[in-house]
Automatic annotation (TrEMBL):
Record keyword Transmembrane present: yes
Protein name: Simple sugar transport system permease protein
Subcellular location field: Cell membrane
UniProt cross-references to Pfam families, sorted A to Z: BPD_transp_2
């Protein structure tokens, strides 16, 4: 590979990191809930709701921080709603998550129309933009500055959260209790762990992560909200968590793979290839990866 090609490849890294950020944030949230035995299927709806509330709160207050806080809160509240549906109303977890996704898609569209008269994007709901971060000294280093500096603040949050979540799940008493609940709720209850409390906490934290990813979509990608702007990224985050084999680092690498697929698809749309075909790439890649993962798991189980 020539120097020009290498530099061109590095210049593509910021786009990959930008696309990966909301997927990774949501996938880490899914990981936390999954390890507690309550897989967050409502991730798509939570991400969409976080994006909507982030813009509304930011537009109302004139503060990007308020928008981010609002997105985190609404994500956590929806996690609590999902937990209440499962533990109080005794509803099925999967069906409750699907219902939440449908309700969020319809609800955000309705509220956007009532507030602006437009179900698409609207300048009257333009948000403040969350800042990018320039790292002193590193930013001035050729190539390395492109890789490590000048990214969105939530990009740094997402990747710094990976070791944090990993340590939480494997090294802290609360994380170990959470994993115990996910592996065997009955045994955890016998050991004196409040299973319901742990699972409710896991869904709330999961929703907060997903809401943060939604805030990035409407306050980092762009500075407005549009109908269904999550565009399936919540489901892609679910695939990333499954591909990550239940670990924070594995989830990060899977998110990077899926983010790269989406970034490449966007870049190729302007190269004469059918845009409809390129738009399917981010969804085809996780399907192929999950099929490969399932086949590999079957072989391992057969050998065992």
């Amino acid at each position: 590979m020539s120097d020009i090609d290498f530099v061109g490849l590095l210049s593509f890294v910021p786009a990959i990191l930008r696309v990966t950020t909301p997927i990774l944030l949501a996938a880490l949230g899914v990981l936390i809930s999954d390890r507690a035995g309550v897989l967050n299927i409502g991730v798509e709806g939570m991400m969409l709701s976080g994006a909507f509330v982030g813009v509304v709160a930011s537009a109302a207050t004139g503060s990007a921080a308020a928008g981010l806080i609002g997105a985190i809160i609404v994500g956590g509240l929806l996690g609590a709603v999902l937990a209440g549906a499962v533990h109080i109303l005794k509803a099925d977890l999967i069906l409750s998550g699907i219902a939440l996704n449908i309700a969020a898609a319809a609800g955000t569209t309705l509220l956007l129309f009532l507030m602006t008269g437009d179900k698409g994007m609207s300048g009257s709901l333009a948000s403040q933009v969350l800042p990018k971060v320039t790292i002193p000294v590193i930013a001035d280093i050729p190539l390395l500055g492109t890789l490590l500096s000048g990214h969105h603040i939530l990009t740094y949050v997402a990747f710094l959260a990976v070791p944090g979540v990993g340590i939480f799940l494997t090294r802290t008493p609360l994380g170990l209790r959470l994993r115990a609940v996910g592996e065997s709720p009955e045994s955890a209850a016998i050991a004196g762990i409040n299973v319901v409390r742990v699972q409710v906490m896991a869904l709330i934290v999961s929703g907060a992560f997903v809401g943060t990813g939604g805030a990035f979509l409407s306050m980092g990608y762009v500075s407005w909200f549009s109908q269904d702007m999550s565009a399936g990224r919540g489901f892609i985050a679910l695939a990333a968590e499954v591909m990550g084999h239940g670990s924070a680092s594995g989830t990060m690498f899977a998110s990077l793979l899926l983010g790269a697929a989406e970034a490449i698809a966007v870049a190729l749309q302007g190269r004469g290839l059918p845009s409809e075909l390129m738009q399917t790439v981010p969804y085809i890649v996780p399907v192929i990866a999950l099929v490969v993962y399932a086949r590999r798991r079957q072989r391992l189980l057969a050998r065992a």
